[in-house]
Automatic annotation (TrEMBL):
Name of the coding gene: araH
Pfam families in UniProt: BPD_transp_2
EC number: 3.6.3.17
Subcellular location(s) of the protein: Cell membrane
Record has Disulfide bond as a keyword: no
Organism: Metarhizobium album
Name of this protein: L-arabinose ABC transporter permease AraH
Length: 316
């Protein structure tokens, strides 16, 4: 029993469980292992995967960001509208990155500098940013004028869609940042004990602002790719994204109490979220049930996080 518990709670255990689940699903669900479905599965988790890269840092530093879904939608809208207005896709992309970065920066300053609770701050910006997207578009989808914009999502490299390569690159970059840089080590230190980190010379306020600014910037990248994939700027896009991203991170071993994170775990968590949805689609299960499954996954993720924290506390 204790060995089973170690398997469930350990970092490698999650990978083993995922591998077993993947094999079972491959053998029992028709058409799951086809190349077309695998690429479709990876395409479907691009938005969650990209945003999870920086949500991992937010959670690891004892914060979280509920405004990510709104920022993704708003950035996609800005990219499309700016591209249409200027006739330049590059300017549209830059405008989206600036807007995403500004939203993240505002979150960071309000939370870190003014010491306002992250829940209240990001809940407020979630509403404000979604409102701005709806106001800018008058509540309607905005079509893309330049067909070249579609190529961001449609283009392929070695037969694999470009957004999947971008997601993989961000996994590698942020995995390196977490494990091999002072920024990553300081993030985990702040999550473990903010006061001790401050006394050790870490500028906690600046670090937290940077983490939220990065979160906004990465949301903008996800928003641009999503707008390209759905061929328009949608003010209601990415609704509920924040819960899926947090679920994926916590399922992947990122602690809600801060101080613990691993990119391999986050990748597995993202894939679990994608596979659950993909299997239900292949089995023609009604979309309504997907809400129930997402809720159950979130509950399981929090339960596992609680068990991991208890186990770490006992070992400590």
């Amino acid at each position: 029993m204790s060995s089973l518990k170690k398997l469930l709670l350990g970092e490698q255990g999650l990978v083993v469980i995922f591998a077993l689940a993947f094999v079972i699903v491959s053998l029992t669900v028709p058409n799951f292992l086809t190349e077309r479905n695998m690429l479709g599965l990876l395409q479907s988790v691009v938005t969650i995967g990209i945003v999870a890269c920086t949500m991992m840092f937010c959670l690891a530093s004892r914060d979280f960001d509920l405004s990510v879904g709104s920022t993704v939608a708003f950035s996609g809208m800005v990219a499309v509208m700016a591209s249409n207005a200027t006739g330049s896709i590059i300017l549209g992309l830059l405008a989206a990155l600036v807007c995403g970065g500004v939203v993240g920066l505002v979150n960071g300053v309000v939370i870190a500098r003014f010491r306002i609770n992250a829940l209240i701050t990001t809940l407020a910006t979630m509403q404000i940013v979604r409102g701005l997207a709806l106001i800018a578009s008058d509540g309607r989808a905005v079509g893309i004028n330049d067909p070249a914009f579609y190529q961001l999502a449609l283009s392929k490299f070695f037969g694999v869609p470009t957004p999947i390569w971008i997601m993989a690159a961000l996994f590698i970059v942020f995995g390196f940042v977490l494990n091999r840089t002072v920024f990553g080590k300081n993030t985990l230190a702040i999550g473990g004990n903010p006061e001790a980190s401050r006394l050790a010379g870490v500028n906690v306020i600046t670090m937290r602002i940077w983490i939220f600014a990065l979160q906004g910037l990465v949301c903008a990248i996800a928003g641009v790719l999503l707008a390209s994939r759905i061929t328009s700027g949608q003010p209601n896009a990415a609704t509920g994204l924040e819960l899926s991203v947090i679920s994926a991170c916590v399922l992947g071993g990122v602690s809600l109490a801060g101080g613990r994170a691993a990119m391999t775990g986050v990748i597995v968590g993202v894939l679990i979220m994608g596979i659950a949805e993909n299997v239900m689609n292949l089995l023609n299960i009604q979309a309504f049930y997907q809400y129930v499954v997402r809720g159950l996954i979130l509950l399981i993720a929090v339960l596992l996080d609680n068990l991991r924290s208890t186990a770490v506390g006992r070992r400590g």
